[in-house]
Amino acid sequence: xxxxxxxxxxxxxxxxxxxxxxxxxxxxxxxxxxxxxxxxxxxxxxxxxxxxxxxxxxxxxxxxxxxxxxxxxxxxxxxxxxxxxxxxxxxxxxxxxxxxxxxxxxxxxxxxx
Length: 113
What we know:
By secondary structure, the protein is mainly α. The chain is built from three helices and no strands.
């Protein structure tokens, strides 16, 4: 026997509201999971970026060391007396030496001439 005080329309409304509330709760949970996943992705990306930056810095330092050694060898060669007893460093004007050193530096870093 039906309860005469229960409005069947209200029962349907209550059921619909409960479905909406459940969907809303599920949506909030999904957003929270997505937020956590995004935070993990960002943290991983930040870690990888730091690793890349560290490797790049190490490679740059190594390249500078190699270039510095090459320049020192070249300068040492320029300081040695040339065959026949001539001292190239004394023979060259300072502007000529600057041009030679600049060309050498460009060659060492691969910038061409």
